[in-house]
């Protein structure tokens, strides 16, 4: 190749990508939802063919409200209550991400939401991890290499966070990389789960917190100052603490924003999802570019591929088209994510040096 590859969807799919924020129950194939629903007798789906069902999820998620957005998950969670369902969804997740050029992914889900058919928490995690390993193997046979790490989520409106934290530590040598809390932010601050975070810190376990998405700066402050999180899930509202009276060089950072940048706290930004939930008004108004130019550790993520009808390649293309990014920018965002992954340092470095940098070098030409 002479010169850089074109910055189009096909070329971006060939680029190696690292994904930190992807929900297992938000990434099912529509046809899988239909087939699993038929197998388990779930008869409340809003559409009966894959195309219509996929469109329903996308349209229902375009509400501008995080609370309404979260309601769509009732259907996906309902078909993920059996060993076969969990394994299939996890297996297909790994295959789909690998086919899109994702070489490292952290996929999160809430085990407490998958107990309706009698599975224990440990069994839920075991079947899901088995599905990821099966998906990795199938992807490798197809020529796509991916490593999937699982994050265990506790629901912030519930009271099982300590139990899920213990589950995270119990399975951390089996493919679970860390812990998360998720769900509606307003009225459910992260400080309700301090017992879980203290347990994780004592056991030197990694954790991220959904913060600064639907709720503002206080959510981010609590996640950092009281809970001690490693990363911020979304974190777009950090801009509440940033003032740009003129040029970018004149930007003024408040104490929280200054801390986040100084400490290189990774921001798990999800452009399409952030627009859907009303966290930002539109893609061109997304603070991704401001934060990138201010040298925050920004990362690109999908959040929920089914609800946003998206992939990592599509998210990157949208950023390219909106903000004019080039290959060097996409490589920087990818390395940002890989540096922030919840796996050992030598493993992170190996993926950066042996996969990400060489493959980007080919694309740049």
From TrEMBL:
Q: Where does Zn(2+) bind?
A: 21, 23, 210, 303
Q: Which UniProt keywords apply?
A: Hydrolase, Metal-binding, Nucleotide metabolism, Zinc
Q: What is its EC number?
A: 3.5.4.4
A Pfam family hit: A_deaminase
Could you state one GO biological process linked to this protein? hypoxanthine salvage
List the molecular function annotations (GO) for this entry: 2'-deoxyadenosine deaminase activity; adenosine deaminase activity; zinc ion binding
Q: InterPro entries annotated for this entry?
A: A_deaminase, A_deaminase_dom, Ado/ade_deaminase, Metal_Hydrolase
Q: Which reaction does it catalyse?
A: adenosine + H2O + H(+) = inosine + NH4(+); 2'-deoxyadenosine + H2O + H(+) = 2'-deoxyinosine + NH4(+)
Q: Where is the active site?
A: 213 (proton donor)
Listed cofactors: Zn(2+)
Binding-site positions, substrate: 23, 25, 183
Residues under site feature: Important for catalytic activity: 234
Domain Adenosine deaminase intervals = 16-357
| Membrane-spanning intervals of the chain | none
The top EC class is hydrolase
Cellular component, GO annotation: cytosol
State the free-text cofactor note. Binds 1 zinc ion per subunit.
Protein family membership: Belongs to the metallo-dependent hydrolases superfamily. Adenosine and AMP deaminases family. Adenosine deaminase subfamily.
Q: What does this protein do?
A: Catalyzes the hydrolytic deamination of adenosine and 2-deoxyadenosine.
Protein known as:
Adenosine deaminase
């Amino acid at each position: 190749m002479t010169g850089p590859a074109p910055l189009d969807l096909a070329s971006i799919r060939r680029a190696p990508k690292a994904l930190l924020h992807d929900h297992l129950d938000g990434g099912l194939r529509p046809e899988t939802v239909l087939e699993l629903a038929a197998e388990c007798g779930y008869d409340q789906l809003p559409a009966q063919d894959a195309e219509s069902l996929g469109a329903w999820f996308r349209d229902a998620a375009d509400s501008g409200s995080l609370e309404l957005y979260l309601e769509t998950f009732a259907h996906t969670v309902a078909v993920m209550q059996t060993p076969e369902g969990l394994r299939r969804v996890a297996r297909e997740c790994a295959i789909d991400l690998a086919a899109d050029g994702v070489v490292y992914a952290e996929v999160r889900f809430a085990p407490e939401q998958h107990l309706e058919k009698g599975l224990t928490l440990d069994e839920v995690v075991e079947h899901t991890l088995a599905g990821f390993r099966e998906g990795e193997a199938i992807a490798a046979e197809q020529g796509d290499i991916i490593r999937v790490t699982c994050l265990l989520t506790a629901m912030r409106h519930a009271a099982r966070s300590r139990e899920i934290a213990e589950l995270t530590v119990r399975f951390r040598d089996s493919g679970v990389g860390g812990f998360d809390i998720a769900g509606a932010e307003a009225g459910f601050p992260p400080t309700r789960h301090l017992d879980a975070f203290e347990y994780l810190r004592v056991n030197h376990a990694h954790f991220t917190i959904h913060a600064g998405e639907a709720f503002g700066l206080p959510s981010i402050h609590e996640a950092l100052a009281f809970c001690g999180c490693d990363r911020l899930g979304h974190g777009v509202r950090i801009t509440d603490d940033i003032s740009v009276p003129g040029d970018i060089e004149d930007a003024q950072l408040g104490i929280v924003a200054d801390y986040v940048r100084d400490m290189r706290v990774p921001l798990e930004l999800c452009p399409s999802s952030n627009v859907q939930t009303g966290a930002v008004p539109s893609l061109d108004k997304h603070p991704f570019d401001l934060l990138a130019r201010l040298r925050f550790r920004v990362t690109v993520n999908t959040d929920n591929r089914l609800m946003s009808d998206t992939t990592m390649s599509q998210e990157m293309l949208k950023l390219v088209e909106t903000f004019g990014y080039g290959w060097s920018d996409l490589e920087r965002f990818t390395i940002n994510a890989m540096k922030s992954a919840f796996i050992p340092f030598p493993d992170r470095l190996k993926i950066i040096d042996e996969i990400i940098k060489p493959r980007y070098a080919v694309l740049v030409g």
